[in-house]
Amino acid sequence: MSTSEIATVLAWHDAVNSNDIDTLVELSSDDIVLPTDDDDPDQGLDELREWATTSGVTLEPGRMFVHAGIVVVEERSTWAADPQNPVDEAIAFRVVDDQVVTVVRHPRLTDAFEATGLGEGDLYEE
After folding, report:
1. Of 35, 56, 75, 88, which is most buried, counting CB atoms within 10 Å of its CB?
2. DSSP conformational letter for 35
3. Where do runs of H (alpha helix) occur along the chain?
4. Please, are residues 56 and 83 in contact by the beta-carbon 8 Å criterion?
5. Digit-coded pLDDT (tens) for 4-51
6. pLDDT bucket at 126, cuts 50 / 70 / 90
7. Do the beta carbons of residue 16 and residue 27 sit within 8 Å?
8. What predicted TM-score, i.e. pTM, was given to this entire model?
9. Domains identified in the chain, total number
10. What range defines the domain where residue 106 resides?
């Protein structure tokens, strides 16, 4: 279990929520892979900057699970386009050398567990 990976993911959340693009970029790898609404993920810092400045999302992390560079976070995501209807989901992050490399959204925690191989036994407890 790596506190560093958790700290990176929490700092990434803070940067998204405060629209601190410079910090978000510092916490992300040059070839970061981001989810999209279609099957073709976006990649790179330019795509991250565009997403961060236009999405209007606020991420409220809940329980976190971590193992071998993968962090799964139960989230409540609130989008500027529909602030009255927050979405409960799970987001899987891959962290390498204190940078987020991949972000994958899942509709349910069980889906994130299935995709990552993590489970309840990987719960991060401070």
Report:
1. 75
2. -
3. 3-17, 21-26, 45-54, 109-116
4. no
5. 999 999 999 999 999 999 999 999 999 999 876 666 678 899 999 999
6. confident
7. no
8. 0.92
9. 1
10. 3-122
Contact criterion met (CB below 8 Å) for 94 and 101: yes
**CATH number (domain holding residue 89):** 3.10.450.50
Residues 6+ apart with CB under 8 A from 123: 63, 64, 65
Rounded to the nearest angstrom, the gap between the alpha carbon of residue 14 and the centroid of all alpha carbons in its chain is 11
| Edge-to-edge strand list for the sheet holding 57-67 | 42-43, 28-34, 99-106, 87-96, 70-79, 57-67
d(CA 51, CA 48): 5
Task: Give the position of tokens 């506190």.
Answer: 3
**CB distance 95 to 101 below 8 Å:** yes
With 50 as the cut, is the pLDDT of residue 86 above it? yes
Is the pLDDT at 1 greater than 60, yes or no?
no
Count how many residues are written for the chain. Answer: 126
